[in-house]
Amino acid sequence: MTMQRIGGLAALICAATYIFGFTLLVTVFAESGFGTNDIDAAGVVRFTVDNQALMITWFTVIYVLNALALAVLVVALASRLRAKSADWATMTLAFGLIWTTLVLGAGMIGNVTTETMAAMAPNDFESAVQTWEALHAVELGLGGGNEIAGGVWILCVSLAGIMHRAFGKIVVGLGLLTGIGGLLTVFPPFGEIAGAVFGLGAIAWFIAVGLALLFKRNVVLSEPMQS
User: Fold this and answer.
1) 108-133 tens-digit pLDDT
2) pTM (two decimals)
3) Is 113 strand, coil or helix?
4) What are the extents of the domains in the chain?
């Protein structure tokens, strides 16, 4: 199996992790308020203590598994772009690996937070709530509260796709929309809407990229390199 096909599968895995995460947020996690702007920290801690295994599974899928698949996709896309522009390939690789690292770090913090809450809450609930609030802020800063790193990477891949015809119009269009949505998450007035645009757009973009790598993997490789 070529790296392009492996990258295509990795992209579909990334999409699946997002779908899994959104599904739990709007169903199982809905009553706890987890994942909303009006979080009841005490309620989340109680939910975490009662559902420790589920929370660890959720963090592992949406962050850790996503980051591992994302790393493979980043390498595959850089390899694809290298046949057209070594400079753009290197830049997308750098931004992509930065995002991958942040996502993986967020997942590790999320899992440690879950284990810490389960140990602290039965003996000192108030301290557990305060600790959760502090660690959750770090988690959001790395991988959930804003999507700057992901937005920049997806935009770079999309711009490279435009200039070097590395991808079709659907991939590029979805990438531009998703990337801009990620950048807008840094502004509080647009945070919630931009976050939704980025998340839902990323699902569609990952699927489109995955299909492009799986079924059109040799489009770029046959053309000469440009810098």
Assistant:
1) 999 999 999 989 999 999 999 999 98
2) 0.89
3) helix
4) 3-215
